[in-house]
Amino acid sequence: MSELPKGWVNAKIKDVSIKCVQNKPNDEDKLVYVDIGSINRKLKVIENPQHLKGIDAPSRARKRINTNDVLVSLTRPNLNAIAHVPKDFDEQYASTGFEVIKSVGVDSRYLFALVKTQNFINAISGVVQGALYPKQLNRLMFKIMSFH
């Protein structure tokens, strides 16, 4: 393994993120639902999410997203349907087809840049054989600037 620049460390995604909270929306809730079709894969942004009442939300509308979360599609990851969550979608719902990366101790913009790279896409696409599980995604190593 090559030597890292001073102040940098190897880390796993699980080392710099926390689990996403999942819950079923209440029937009367008004919500924005982000599914994989809501992602503009070229621009890497959320476009045209669904505005629904909780009672009408699909069963996959379970992952609570917040400003600066990073969404990574687990469905056909080679298509690189990813987005950095803007404040407009704070406290809304995303599909269980996403891994929601909630950064801790590292700027989420760095993680967003990482998941856009061809190396990351190749790494997670190589792991996928029908389904990619968060446990496998969290095993991927990357380099980060240490804040110690």
TrEMBL record:
InterPro entries: Restrct_endonuc_typeI_TRD_sf (IPR044946), Type-I_RE_S_subunit (IPR051212). Keywords: DNA-binding, Restriction system. Signal peptide: none annotated. It comes from the Bacteria. It comes from Colwellia maritima. This is Restriction endonuclease subunit S.
